[in-house]
Each structure stands twice: as C-alpha cells, then as structure tokens.
Design brief:
410 residues; mainly beta; 4-stranded antiparallel beta sheet; 5% helix; 51% strand; globular
Length: 410
C-alpha cells in the first residue's frame, strides 16, 4: 500500500483545524462538500475487497479491507486515521479474505471478522490473537458476512453457510466467539449478500439478497426471536436483479429501516428504494428510478444528530459510460436529495466480484458522514463531509484567510 499524498493530508488536516468542529455546523444549501482521503493503493496487479468502515466513540474512523494479489501479497488489514489525517495500516493476516467486517464495542475495542480462503470464519478482538470461530462453514466462493455490536456491547453477526440458504450466527464478548445455525431460508439457490442490525432489545434483524429457486432475485428479511432458535424469514420484494441491500437502526426511536435496489428487464428500469416498518407493513419510497442508469451496491446509515437516513450507492451509466459513487439523504423536510461523491470509481475488481461502499456517521461531537470505497485507480479511499467545510463558491475566500463557517446539511 502506498502512502497518501502529503499535500492531500495537509489539506485535510488544515481544513479540520481551521474550521473546527462546531456542533451547529450544517450545510447552507443542503449540498455536502466531499473531501477524499486516500488510505492507500493496491500494489501491482492486486485488487481490493469491499471495505468496512466504522467510527469509534472518540470520532476515530477505521476501515477493514483485504488485498488480493494471487497467492502472493494477499493480506487482511485494518487501517485507522489519526487526528492529523494520517492513515496507518495494521496487516492482520497474510492470508486471503473474501470479505471483512469491522465493529467497535463500547470500550472502543475493535473486532474484525473475515472469511478466508480455507472456508473458515476468522476473528480478531482488540488486536489480539487470531481466532477461528468454531463450527463455521461459510460459503467461501460467494461470501456474505455482517457484524455489529448491540447496545450492551456484545458482538452480533451473521454469515451465509456453504449450503444454499443456510445462515449462521456470530456471537462474542471479550474475545470469546461462538457460532450456531439460525436456520435456512427456503426457496433460494444462493445467498448473494446480507446485512445485520440490532434493535433496542439487542435482537438481530437481517436483510438478505438471494437468488430465488423460482427465478430472479429477492429481498428477504429475517429476525431473531427473543426466545432463541431459528430466525423466521419472509420475502419483501422480487426483481430480475437485486444489486444492493442495506439495513440500519434509527437512533431516535429504535425503528428498523431498509434500502435496496431492483432492476426489471421488461421496462429496463433500475430503482433505489427506502422502507420503514410502521408496525403493520412497510412504508416504501422510491428514492430514484432510472432507465439510463443501474443502481448497484448500497450502504444505509442514520445521521446521529437528527435521525435522518442516508444512503451511499453506486450507479453505472452506459451512454456515456461511467461508474459513480453517489450519496442520497433526507433533508429536514424529509425530501430525498442526492450528491455526487466520486465520478471515477471501480464497481467490480479484476475477479469480477462486486464490491460496495461502506457508509458510517461519526458520533463524537458533531455527526457527519464518511464513505469508504475503491476508486478507479484501485485506491482505497474514505470520503468525508466534515462540518464547517465551505461550499465550493466560498473556498477561495477561505484560502485568502476568510474563515467562513459554512453550515453542513441537516
């Protein structure tokens, strides 16, 4: 991995120092101003997996990721960013990892979990000894993995098993890990992806993207019973293709929200959707609909300062050809708006494996969004929309010494 540009580092550090972290900083016109912070670039012909971004409760961002280099140069890594904008990378393992996941407990201790090339689930707690999670038998060719911490600080996770539809839990506390079957989703031939969140009771809630036995793909939900045992599941939506899924817990009321994309061949239409459960059914909103772009991997999170949802997503256009990272968010009027984050990303890697963005909000002082992704130059990048950064029209005034406090979006 190469070091980030010194000029970029100085710019990022200066921006934070000059503009400060005013808790009231919100965007003037609702348009985020994105600052890209490169973590590093894959070496040689290597490629980078989907990153997993998380903040500890001191406001420190960290990202887990893996590098594929074809038997030599493979690595599993965690990188973290200092208060001066400098990224340091800790090589956790020299093995292959098809997918990684990262989460912090309430004591700011990181847990990394990944699926390795030997079809086992590995874990590391607080930079300690690498462990194999017992009874794990993941799908290594098409891995699906997600972890989080509940409000009590316990690790919760789910991964897809080697047999179609099989799901297994990951539980942990203080570096002790366990796994158990939580059932099998009926009527599916493969689980392509999954995402997990916990509710106020600490129970798991899962969104799954799967190939259906009847054809096409489905968005499937599963929830953990309070008395344990298999998780019941149900199909929420079907389409010719489901290219992305996300799930998150609203910090203001503990409600669960979903996002997903669909593509239908008959009308050549791609949709990005957002849904909330109202106690009886789902209130679903079409955030975007297009016949000229395909919406792919998504990541859902809530702004911790106001409880409004936001979605990082990829879109691919064909005339002209482009692969872009986008950001959709609700404003105070509950209207969805969009922002271009980066117009030169790489949606898939050389192994033709889709990799998605990872969205998280800082929860120390002022809440602001950050997105980890891989750009077209095979550089792992984190884009920030920090508070106090001026709109493009006022940036020249800042460089001339005028310290204008722009207001970040609400």
């Amino acid at each position: 991995m190469s070091d980030q540009s010194p000029l970029r580092t100085v710019f990022m550090a200066a921006t934070f120092i000059l503009m400060g972290h005013d808790p009231a900083s919100l965007a003037i016109d609702g348009t985020p101003t994105w600052l890209q912070s490169p973590v590093g670039t894959a070496s040689g012909n290597a490629t980078i997996s989907s990153p997993s971004l998380a903040f500890d409760h001191h406001g420190t961002p960290a990202v887990s990721w893996s590098q594929f280099a074809g038997s030599q140069g493979d690595s599993v890594n965690r990188s973290e960013r200092s208060a001066l904008g400098l990224w340091a990378t800790n090589p956790i393992s020299s093995g292959v990892a098809r997918q990684t996941a990262l989460s912090f407990d309430r004591a700011e201790r990181p847990t990394m979990v990944w699926i390795d090339g030997a079809a086992t689930v590995k874990a590391q707690f607080d930079d300690g000894t690498l462990q194999t999670i017992p009874s794990s038998n993941p799908n290594v060719m098409n891995p699906a993995l997600s972890i989080t911490h509940d409000l009590a600080g316990n690790l919760r996770g789910v991964f897809a098993g080697a047999s179609p539809g099989d799901l297994f839990s990951i539980d942990g506390s203080g570096g002790t890990f366990s796994s158990a079957s939580i059932g099998s989703i009926p009527g599916v031939t493969a689980v392509s992806d999954l995402r997990l969140t916990t509710d106020d009771r600490g129970l798991g809630n899962l969104i799954v993207r799967a190939d259906l036995s009847a054809g096409g793909q489905g968005v499937i939900l599963a929830s953990e019973p309070s008395f344990g045992g298999n998780w019941p599941s149900a199909v929420l939506a079907t389409a010719d293709a489901v290219n992305g899924i996300g799930i998150a817990t609203d910090p203001t009321d503990g409600g669960i929200a979903l996002t997903y994309t669909t593509f239908n061949n008959t009308n050549n239409t791609s949709k990005l959707l957002f849904a909330r459960f109202n106690g009886a059914s789902f209130d679903t909103t079409v955030v975007l609909s297009s016949t000229s772009a395909v919406f792919r991997d998504v990541s859902l999170a809530f702004d911790l300062s106001d409880g409004l949802p936001a979605i990082a997503f990829e879109q691919e256009t064909f005339a002209p050809a482009a692969e872009e990272l986008m950001f959709a968010f609700q404003n105070a009027a509950l209207t969805w708006q969009t922002s271009l984050v980066d117009d030169t990303i790489s949606i898939s890697n050389s192994q033709n494996t889709l990799r998605g963005p990872s969205l998280a909000f800082d929860d120390f002082s002022t809440s602001f969004p950050a997105i980890a992704y891989v750009d077209a130059g095979e550089t792992l990048t984190v884009a920030f929309d920090p508070p106090g950064v001026p709109e493009p029209g006022t940036f020249c005034l800042l460089t001339c010494g005028f310290f204008l406090m722009a207001r970040r979006r609400r």
